Amino acid sequence: MFSNRLGSIKPFIVMEILEQALAMEEKGIDVIHFEIGEPDFDTPEKIINGCYEDIIAGKTHYTHSLGLLELRNALSKYKERTRGTLFNPKTEIMVTGGTSPAFLNILGTLIDPGDEIIITDPGYPCYANFIQFFGGKPVYLPIYEEDEFNLDINALKHLITKKTKMLILNSPSNPTGQIIPDKTLDGIAKLMLENKFWTISDEIYSELTYDKERAPSLSEKKYSECHDRLIVLDGFSKFWAMTGWRIGYIIAPANLIKAMMPIQQNFSICAPSISQTAAIHALECDVETQKMLDIYRKRRKFIVNRISAIPKISCLVPKGAFYLFCNIKKLEIGSIELSKRLLEKAHIAVTPGVAFGKNGEGFIRISYPTDIDNISEGMDRLKIFINSID
Ligand SMILES: Cc1ncc(COP(=O)(O)O)c(C=O)c1O
Question: Is the pTM of this model over 0.70?
Fold first, then answer.
């Protein structure tokens, strides 16, 4: 009855855990949520008020399929300021309803059945689903905690074949919280030039960094030689606390943006107009976003200290995003089983590492955009639970 294509999309495990946790809450059980990858902050008032005025002024119509030119101009200026590269707002930027649907445009335009796309393992689980939906083949590049979950250029080189169409990067990473350093980007840029594959750089967490102003990116001017094969994906969900507004954008060479327009026009028409105006206000919210970032930074320090004090588990200090990939190997319990027990017995919802790839086994992802009191209670429960395992 349903299409064969549907078989290539696996359920999103995070949502399944969330649904189980919500069912427990309905029965009156108090669950600490460390599974959801979403800011606990509401969207800054300045964005809401600005958008409200725009709605009243009637900015509720379809826009150009590439998005409001005012927003594309603002995005171009923002990238010029932060990356030193001038992307043409008229031809090189497409505004979308979040970064997730942007994959529909990009992969639908570029991928043919049998094309190989390299992704890291562990990595963001939707990538493999997106690729398989279009008949592509995900090729997994294992990354390891010993290397701070950085990808190894030699290992990447060995995975490249004649069928390699694309590489997908995500820095800071969901689930590891680690950042791809400049030196690795240098190696990737060289491989892109030699082998002529596309790279999608998913930069949804690029400003959510704790020790550097932002994560290094192939969109910087020094990598301009490979910009004819670079696709930057970015959006307002995380750093601006705007998950529900569904607003993101693609920066890509003009010929690709033009080729993606039919999919955009047919499937979306345009991104939601009211979210586009909200995004224009968001780009003027440096003070508000820095306040949220300072709070995430305090939470990161607190949770890393608490994890370090629990025997048999450990973690690297995350450099960005709001995830901590916690090593549970010494417990000798699979990550799915541990997550199940943590939810049922300790009432803490986490995501099993294996949900992010085979190589994520032996880890759980703890998402910490929640207030310090909750983190503290969750860590108390985690400690008691782990001490109770013999
Ligand atoms: C790495 C990564 N990319 C993309 C997304 C989706 O973002 P959006 O809300 O823009 O669709 C997420 C959400 O968790 C993510 O972690």
Answer: yes
